Amino acid sequence: MNAGGPVDDYLNAVRGAMRGMDPRVREDILRELRSHVAEAASANGGDVPRAVAALGPASQVGRAYRAVYGYGRGYQILFIVVAALLSALTVPVLGGAPPSAGTVAYAPNLASFPFLVLVVLWLLWVSVAAGSRAGLYAGLGAFAGRIAMAAALVLTPSGGILTADGVALLVLSSALLVLLGLLPGTAKKAWSKPGADL
Question: How confident is the model at residue 160, as a pLDDT?
């Protein structure tokens, strides 16, 4: 243990488990926990280790608070930006013409497929790890990234081919990414066991 004692050790472990939360919220929670330990130790004759142990494992307590309060704005912005950038690289999956006279025109499609897999995995992780709201925002970022990239491709000098079917497929598949960002976190919340009140 460090010079701060068992309370500081415990609170540092809780702080580590709450990584990614808004710092002000995290520090407020830690002050409340410190106060709770002091009150519990006072009520049980000054037994600080017992008061700390009564709170439960630090990693579990920290993760429970992060589940309730979510990630901070900086992390949410990161989730959105990564989803938008990855999804922008998936647009060629919808483009490309059939090969003609021995040429291979599907190379952009094949090259962008791994990015489609990455954006799907990213949205699933964000939704489950950070909650349905963060997943929804990341899904909207993915939607915006795909639409922006498609618009940029159409507006380039070489231009893209824009058809009604292509636009419909782009919008539909992009909307599915929004749902993919939302649903796993919502399902996790609905199917998880109720936890102890914090």
Answer: 66
What is the per-residue pLDDT across 86-112, written as a single tens digit (0 to 9) for each?
A: 999 888 655 445 555 555 555 556 778
Choose among 119, 111, 110, 116: nearest CA to 90: 116
Residues 126/79, Cβ–Cβ less than 8 Å: yes
Q: Which amino acid is at 74?
A: G
* Residue 122 and residue 181 share a domain: yes
Of 185, 60, 63, the C-alpha closest to 125 is: 185
Token digits of residue 129: 């790890």
Q: Tell me whether residue 197 is in a domain.
A: no
183 vs 119, residue with greater confidence: 119
Mean pLDDT is lowest, of 61-65, 73-77, 162-166, 175-179, for: 162-166
What range does the domain containing 135 cover?
A: 73-191
Q: Residue 11, Cβ neighbours under 10 Å: how many? A: 22
